[in-house]
Design goal:
Layout (H helix, E strand, L loop, with lengths): L1 E2 L4 H21 L1 H6 L1 H27 L4 H5 L1 H13 L7 E4 L2 E7 L2 E3 L2 H19 L6 H21 L3 H17 L4 H21 L1 H11 L10 H13 L24 H33 L4 H25 L17 H18 L3 E2 L2
Antiparallel strand pairs: 1-5, 2-3, 3-4
Helix pairs in contact: 1-12, 3-14, 5-6, 6-7, 6-8, 6-13, 7-8, 8-13, 9-10, 11-12, 12-13, 13-14
């Protein structure tokens, strides 16, 4: 067996996603510049300096830190991420937007602290499952601890409320649980319970029910709850096969809601057309394929489960966003990794990629 350096194809896929993502963001942000020049400066600075530059530095650092150290401190990292996420409820520190409390302000910087909770959960749950080994397939050693952990995360995120982030973390948790030896019948049971919980949540939270109704009947309220999906589909349709060209989107100018946020895929579709959107989707598919292939080559259970969790976290978020923009999933409000505005999100995504690169150095291939 031969020990290798970090995986080059995976690194190249990330590099392409980062470059393409920043170019898409730059183009989409022109719509903001035309109407809110002052806000544009802050958004561009946050994405470029905190997200791209500091995120790249974070990726370099985590790529050179032995991932095994995270296992030793995973509990403390998880607790720290919970405390950081709870800070959004502290008066004068937490910031509300659109009826949700998901950010804190430190000086002139805003942080979406749930990004820390994502990786904190993945680290701790991966360490738990790796330690449990064969017990993961049991009720007491696997399913119950998973339900307790995901319940803690859910209680915090649903209080904000941030249903979308909770679902993404749940997807990553299910992937870790399954990869660590969890049973399919336990996953099916959790799926049924999750469906029941979602039904209850839809009746308890009007905005969740509104999203479901909009998904089922997008044309019923085209100027209200269905406006975003209608404009997204118009933008993507305007792109045709080859697109209008880089920077030539029309919908991003005061028409498409959140053109630098969760609607940025629609801007990309208008500018690069069907061929461009398919290429971007294939990039995420390759990212997932290569990441999971690396995971299969890692002899250490903790490292293997960490990769599975991070890859599923990023890719599920990407496809939930894309699915919402093309109308095959309910609108989620969740952003597109590597692409959408969000300095904290890009910073943490690049740091997580660095962890995968470090773990990939431990992969072993039997000749």
């Amino acid at each position: 067996m031969k020990k290798l350096k970090f995986d080059i194809p995976f690194f190249i896929s990330v590099l392409i996603l980062v470059i393409v993502g920043y170019l898409i963001f730059f183009s989409a942000s022109m719509g903001l510049l035309s109407s809110q020049a002052a806000k544009y400066k802050g958004v561009a600075f946050n994405q470029t300096v905190f997200g791209l530059i500091l995120g790249s530095i974070a990726c370099f650092i985590t790529a050179n830190i032995d991932y095994r150290i995270y296992r030793k401190f995973s509990f403390y990292i998880f607790v720290g991420s919970i405390i950081a996420t709870l800070l959004v409820f502290v008066p004068h520190l937490g910031v509300g937007h659109g009826g949700a409390n998901r950010w804190i302000y430190i000086g002139s910087f805003s942080l979406q602290t749930s990004e820390f909770l994502k990786i904190g959960f993945i680290m701790f749950f991966s360490a738990w499952v790796a330690k449990a080994k064969d017990k993961t397939g049991t009720l007491k050693g696997g399913l119950i601890p998973f339900v307790i952990l995901i319940g803690i995360v859910g209680a915090i995120l649903l209080k904000q409320p941030d249903t979308d982030t909770f679902l993404i973390i749940a997807f990553a948790g299910l992937a870790i649980f399954l990869a660590g030896g969890g049973k399919w019948n336990h996953i099916l049971l959790m799926g049924l319970c999750g469906l029941l919980a979602l039904t209850i949540l839809a009746f308890a939270r009007p905005y969740v029910m509104s999203r479901i109704n909009t998904f089922l009947n997008p044309k019923d309220n085209a100027l209200g709850s269905g406006y975003q999906i209608q404009q997204s589909l118009i933008a993507i349709g305007n792109g045709g096969i080859f697109g209008r060209g880089f920077g030539q989107s029309v919908q991003k100018f005061n028409v498409l809601p959140e053109p630098i946020g969760d609607s940025i895929f629609a801007v990309f579709g208008e500018e690069f057309g069907f061929l461009g959107t398919v290429s971007l989707i294939l990039l995420f598919v390759f990212f997932a394929f290569r990441g999971l292939k690396i995971a299969g080559q890692i002899p250490d259970a903790f490292g293997r489960l960490m990769i599975v969790g991070i890859v599923i976290l990023i890719v599920s978020q990407a496809f939930v966003n894309i699915g919402a923009m093309v109308g095959v999933l309910p609108l989620s409000g969740i952003t597109l990794p590597f692409v959408s505005h969000g300095g904290t999100a890009l910073f943490m995504t690049l740091a997580e990629v660095g962890i995968i690169l470090n773990i990939s150095k431990s992969r072993k291939i039997v000749k």
